[in-house]
Specification:
Order of helices and strands: HHHHEHEEHEHHHEHEHEHEHEH
Helix content: 40-55%
Oligomer: single chain
CATH class: Alpha Beta
Shape: globular
Number of strands: 9
Length: 369
């Protein structure tokens, strides 16, 4: 099973994560967690304190590498994900960005009209975003070669929501006004973001990431026609522009995660991605029935389950895995990111449950590896 009718290279990857992305046989389901490096870990909070601010941490390659590696060292997850933030792209394009304590990201001068696009530049990933490339270099130097590194970007639509709203939003009034009343403004911004994201992700691939994920956090606020036009089509253009093979011939899988878009799976399937990320509102078995065996699936435990008892965590993991059954092409993950107040001691319980239950479903010994 490979998206876009691309045959896996003869030298198949050995890591569980990359094999699952390509639909190859695995002994057990691989697991990583969105926001696995973050505020729920005391060691992360210590490094964040050393950095002085969240943005300073993102811009320090050595410290960003350290926090990327923390959950791998603590939990033995099957993949690492680069520590950064989706909003480094708008800042690199020339927008002033602050992270306000308790309030999240803030752009004091949001975009409001077509003429504002003239103040945006196309960033060079090796210059304006060179600190990200430096972090990847340092992570790859320290990360065991057997552990894949995932790079990422926000989707153009999601980035645009922050750039137009000025920060987080509940109503999305400004960007939806642009969508309905000023499409040339919104589409001009999305086009610039497509180009910036293609350059950014290709640079990440050049520096050693082995898979990339596009986070479409706000795709779910759109209706079907608007989702296709303003969210999916820009992501489709990005995927078409990515380097899909590394110099050794191995494929670079692309994961597309559109939160709140379980109703749009057939539309997402036209994007060219290899892996469809799912939140917790769509059972894996239903998604596989709708998409067929061509696509791998990623997800989709509700993060709030990690507030529950170990027994309930194990039961919910079993339910998620059994909804798909003994099929290849699944990466276990949360349906969204780790919350900052989660108990880190719940994570090894989750991982052990995934490994035990997935091996049981595959008819193997339940002994942990």
């Amino acid at each position: 099973m490979n998206a876009n009718n691309v045959t896996a290279p003869s030298s198949e990857p050995q890591s569980l994560f990359l094999r699952a992305c390509l639909g190859l046989d695995v002994a057990q389901t691989p697991v990583w967690l969105m926001r696995q490096a973050g505020r729920y870990l005391p060691e992360y909070r210590e490094v964040r304190r050393q950095a002085g601010s969240f943005l300073a941490l993102c811009k320090n390659p050595e410290l960003a590498a350290r926090v990327t590696l923390q959950p791998i060292e603590r939990f033995g997850l099957d993949a690492a994900i680069l520590f950064s933030d989706i909003l480094v792209i708008p800042e690199a394009m020339g927008m002033e960005l602050h992270f306000l304590e308790g309030e999240g990201p803030h752009f004091p001068h949001p975009l409001t009209r077509l003429a504002d696009l003239d103040r945006l530049n196309l960033p060079d990933p090796e210059v304006q975003l060179g600190y990200v490339m430096g972090a990847i270099d340092e992570i790859r130097r320290q990360l065991p070669s057997s552990t894949p590194l995932i790079g990422f970007s926000g989707s153009p639509w999601t980035l645009a929501t922050y750039m137009i709203e000025g920060g987080s939003s509940k109503k999305f009034a400004q960007i939806k006004t642009a969508l309905y009343d000023d499409p040339p403004f919104l589409e001009g911004l999305l086009e610039r973001l497509v180009t910036a994201v293609v350059h950014y992700l290709n640079a990440q691939i050049d520096h050693g990431v082995q898979a990339v994920q596009i986070f479409d956090t706000w795709g779910g606020i759109l209706g079907p026609d608007e989702y296709r036009r303003f969210s999916l089509e820009p992501m489709t253009r990005i995927i078409a522009g990515l380097k899909r093979r590394r110099p050794d011939g191995t494929r670079v899988p692309v994961i597309l995660f559109s939160k709140g878009c379980g109703g749009y799976l057939e539309t997402i399937a036209t994007s060219g991605c290899d892996v469809v990320g799912l939140d917790w509102t769509t059972p894996l078995g239903q998604a596989r029935a709708r998409l067929g065996p061509k696509f791998a699936l990623q997800g989709n435990l509700d993060p709030a389950v990690l507030y529950a008892s170990p027994k309930r965590i194990h039961a919910e993991v079993r339910r998620v895995l059994e909804s798909l059954g003994n099929q290849n092409g699944h990466i276990f993950n949360l349906g969204h990111g780790m919350e900052p107040n989660l108990d880190p001691e719940k994570v090894p319980i989750l991982i052990a449950a995934v490994r035990e239950e997935s091996k049981r479903i595959r008819g193997q010994s339940s002994t942990h590896v």
